[in-house]
């Protein structure tokens, strides 16, 4: 469905989503509620989003033919995962297909070196960084940034994958032979001794309007998001700085859609952009229950040309991720749910993933409570009560 | 999946829903969010609930083989529509399948004469009523109840279908030849000169615990729900009476699941049960956004043996139904959405029905606002802005 004259995409128009994980599933929920038709592209048959969509194209997120097929079948295309074939998106856009955020924005974000360079050029605060072409460049970096520093793959990393913290010269020796600089593009970055990790999800609509969800405070474990608290306990000044950065990031991209900006906050109140994602974010799942508009409805509103919704927080909220503790390759059962649901304001989200692996995100729990401390306590107890077990056939 | 020893049904167990309309769709949303597997039985391929479920059995809601198939494929069965084959449900229960509410409760509810008799025997306030076996019985009824009175089909009516208000003797003459008393079971009922129409949705869990959603105030037009306001502006005394009735209704049935009790409130504060439905209800759609737990999550909790959730109202709410204004037998588009979404706290629900008909429910809009008056105003403006139009192919 090609070259609509009008920018507004009305129900029951077809929303194409590249990637069929939990983010795609939660977007599909909102789209289906509002009467849209949803088509998912994902290589895994019966993926989480595929389970609730009208249709799934089973195909690779990198295959230009499959992505083209999705665009041809739908009125607008978005993605829930940034490692998709961005060149095809650019090509399709040039033919008039609607894709938000655009392929060119995605390309800038996919490569962390380019992403940081874009922000740095715009005067936005990022940790100091440099490209590594030769192993000697690391030595140069040490002179400039000192220890520790972070060695990063420029492309393909998420949840901390592809990042290595280098604490001393010995660490360099240890990784030196594994770098394969002729094969992988790599960079080093100054290590920001952050006090807290924050994030903000922002949306930009066709008419350039921007909305800001509340700033969230995140706790990571092994680089994977563990817990999000909202509202973050930050000063007005820090909040202002973060919103200002968010606005400038969106202006740099001059694009449409939803973005998450991950922020490092240092003890003396300095803020740095850690990373930007051009999609809804794990740290804003709390918006589903806690805000007037969820981040997924906001994404839908942005890409369909609707006015953006209110981001007002209706209740303090804590979100905890449910991560796999052991690999389970067959069916698994979620035990302890009864105990968890005894508490008021506890919301269960299980994604329907086909297998469990160590630290794999298989669900999340959001808790609303007038007291943030109480919400956190409930969320921890909920996690403790949860038991993910393989289903053994009854004899 | 038959005769589980334990009453608790854990994700990803299979939830069977008889009927695939909007109520089934909204239940499926909650079940999919919580990680359950959802199978729908409905005769219409690609029905609203089928669009978001894991699987749909395309088959009649009355066909015992299809219902048996659904029960065999799932861990628990419920229904979103009361006119299904209740005998099969009873049979399946006797074989150990879990079906909530039970077939025997459903049978009592399906026949309005039996339903009213059950309540009347339990001392619950219902309008006076009597069975019509001969046309002369109407004359008797007039002597007892006076004019106007309501002539009702005992089975099969909903949204006012099958009900005729008899205002005078002439009206009796007019309908006399169409009654087909040898074919249809009929009753007459005293007409309650109600001041307002209210409803309450209540749930009962395995352990006999009951939760009460807030009392809602409803406006009907041509016997179809038009608008629901919550909280209803009623005295504590009336609220107490209604909750007391609700509790007794649930105790009469001694069953598990969710029930809606429609209430007539007279100008002098008397309350009468109008009708009871053994399922989620249009007048509690507001719970999705306005309550801690939605009526659909509550239904799911009840039938899976989970503790019931908090029914706390988080905001005043108004819900308006979107009804078809003209028949549309092809694809249709929902226009005016952009204008509607400009207002804060407005939630769109379109069911994805395959065709539109006059007064057919195709969606609803819920508005949250600190002021109930403001919410009502916004809901009316939203409806006025909405335009459902056939999609004409672009040339």
UniProtKB/TrEMBL annotation, chains A, B:
Alphabetical list of InterPro entries matching this protein? ATP-grasp (IPR011761), ATP-grasp_carboxylate-amine (IPR003135), ATP_grasp_subdomain_1 (IPR013815), PreATP-grasp_dom_sf (IPR016185), PurK (IPR005875), PurK_C (IPR040686), PurT/PurK_preATP-grasp (IPR054350), Rudment_hybrid_motif (IPR011054)
SUPFAM superfamilies for this protein: Glutathione synthetase ATP-binding domain-like (SSF56059), PreATP-grasp domain (SSF52440), Rudiment single hybrid motif (SSF51246)
Pathway-wise, it operates in: Purine metabolism; IMP biosynthesis via de novo pathway; 5-amino-1-(5-phospho-D-ribosyl)imidazole-4-carboxylate from 5-amino-1-(5-phospho-D-ribosyl)imidazole (N5-CAIR route): step 1/2
Positions binding ATP in this chain are 112, 152, 189-192, 197, 220, 274-275
Catalytic activity field: 5-amino-1-(5-phospho-beta-D-ribosyl)imidazole + hydrogencarbonate + ATP = 5-carboxyamino-1-(5-phospho-D-ribosyl)imidazole + ADP + phosphate + 2 H(+)
The EC number(s) attached to this protein equal: 6.3.4.18
GO cellular component: a single term: cytosol
Q: Which Pfam families match?
A: ATP-grasp, PurK_C, RS_preATP-grasp-like
Q: Domain of life, per the record? A: Bacteria
Locate the ATP-grasp domain: which residues?
116-304
- Subunit info? Homodimer.
Under the heading HAMAP family, the entry gives: PurK
This chain's function reads:
Catalyzes the ATP-dependent conversion of 5-aminoimidazole ribonucleotide (AIR) and HCO(3)(-) to N5-carboxyaminoimidazole ribonucleotide (N5-CAIR). Catalyzes the ATP-dependent conversion of 5-aminoimidazole ribonucleotide (AIR) and HCO(3)- to N5-carboxyaminoimidazole ribonucleotide (N5-CAIR).
User: What is the protein's name according to its record?
Assistant: N5-carboxyaminoimidazole ribonucleotide synthase
Q: Which organism is it from?
A: Clostridium polyendosporum
């Amino acid at each position: 469905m090609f070259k609509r004259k009008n920018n507004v995409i009305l129900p029951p128009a077809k929303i194409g989503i590249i990637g069929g994980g939990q983010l795609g599933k939660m977007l599909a929920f909102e789209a289906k509620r509002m009467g849209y038709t949803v088509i998912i592209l994902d290589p895994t048959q019966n993926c989480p989003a595929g389970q609730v969509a009208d249709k799934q194209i089973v195909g690779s997120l990198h295959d230009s033919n499959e992505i083209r097929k999705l665009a041809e079948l739908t009125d607008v295309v978005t993605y829930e995962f940034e490692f998709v074939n961005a060149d095809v998106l650019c090509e399709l856009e040039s033919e008039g297909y609607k894709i938000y955020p655009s392929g060119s924005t995605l390309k800038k974000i996919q490569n962390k070196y380019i992403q940081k360079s874009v922000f740095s050029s715009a005067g936005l605060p990022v940790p100091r960084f440099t490209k590594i072409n030769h192993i000697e460049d690391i030595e140069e970096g040490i002179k400039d940034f000192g220890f520790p520093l972070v060695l990063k793959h420029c492309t393909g990393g998420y949840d901390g994958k592809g990042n290595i913290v280098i604490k001393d010269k010995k660490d360099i020796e240890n990784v030196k032979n594994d770098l394969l600089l002729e094969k992988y593009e790599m960079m080093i970055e100054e290590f920001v001794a952050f006090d807290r990790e924050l994030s903000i999800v922002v949306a930009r609509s066709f008419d350039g309007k921007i909305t800001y969800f509340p700033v969230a405070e995140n706790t990571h474990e092994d680089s994977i998001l563990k817990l999000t608290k909202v509202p973050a306990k930050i000063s007005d000044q820090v909040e202002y700085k973060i919103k200002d950065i968010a606005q400038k990031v969106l202006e740099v991209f001059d694009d449409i859609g939803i973005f998450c900006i991950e922020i490092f906050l240092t003890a003396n109140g300095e803020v740095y952009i850690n990373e930007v994602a051009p999609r809804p974010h794990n740290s804003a799942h709390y918006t589903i229950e806690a805000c007037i508009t969820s981040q997924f409805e906001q994404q839908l509103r942005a890409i369909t040309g609707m006015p953006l919704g209110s981001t007002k927080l209706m209740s303090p909220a804590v979100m905890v991720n449910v991560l796999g503790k052991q690999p389970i390759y067959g069916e698994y059962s979620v035990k302890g749910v009864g105990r968890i649901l005894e508490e008021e304001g506890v919301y269960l989200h299980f994604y329907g993933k086909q297998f469990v692996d160590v630290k794999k995100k298989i669900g999340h729990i959001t808790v609303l409570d007038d007291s943030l401390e109480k919400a956190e306590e409930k969320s921890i107890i909920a996690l403790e009560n949860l038991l993910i077990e393989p289903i053994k056939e009854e004899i």
